[in-house]
Amino acid sequence: MTITDQQPLGSPFSAATSAEDVVAGHDLSGTTAVVTGGYSGLGLETTRALTAAGARVVVPARRPDVARSALRDVKGSEVVAMDLVDLGSVRSVAAHIGESVDRIDLLMAVAGVMATPERHVGPGWESQFTANHFGHFALACELYPLLAAAGGARVVVNSSAGHTLTDIRWHDPHFRTGYDKWLAYGQAKTANSLFAVHLDALGRDDGVRAFALHPGRIITGLQREMAVREQIDRGWIDEHGNVIGAGFKTPSQGAATGLWAATSPLLDDRGGLYLEDCDIARASAPDEPMDDGGVRAYAVDPDGAARLWDLSVAATGATPIIR
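^ thats the sequence. predicted structure below, dont judge the formating
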């Protein structure tokens, strides 16, 4: 797919659509989904909606005790311990899942971090790039045989309008110098989109299609490492913590686009696309404001996607998908 394929379809849904609206009428009985971060914020809404429609949902969680507590009343969900910045943990969970299921119909990469203080993990990797991209990249590669076995699986990756902040910093992706928490976040979100582009290119012959998306502006645990004063100064919340920002969605509305990507028949035979507000996003110009929506050309560029894929395989040692 290329930037010219980024054309809205005229979906019956919108920014105001809820998770429940999207899955209404869908029978997901017999399907298996893996939802990272599926126990808080958008992930929790996603797990609730999928299980309500009959799916079995496996939730890899960095805080398994917290996850089990949050999901104790969500029948059809199960928690496995996993830390996205620990690739040994990712591989272990993938092996565990492979022992309990014979296919995966949906892989939804919802977990993420945003605007964190400077941290380097593993062999010196920047932590936002690692948690948001490398961890999900490795998980998808290890689970790929189970996705291919489904004969029609979808992989849905939460990106963000934050991708408009920067392309991949090929010269210094791990911010060895001059760390900026927002540029690091933006790079990770661009990586999420490019990952979906190349995974779709590799997987389509096996029936594995991939999508990236902007869920919208939502206050969830994603902002946990931002100071309250910064959120107030940005006009997101008031002094009492109430959401006041224009155009902010509820968590259920924020989960809707991912669920639409996972279930909509309008996306049959499509993939490698960036979505927003339960539709395909339009292409945006380089100087357009972030909040005006759309996707930058560099975030869906097939050559950039292939380059990032090669970088990611070399860095993580993930099992390559051969096509």
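The longest strand covers residues 56-61.
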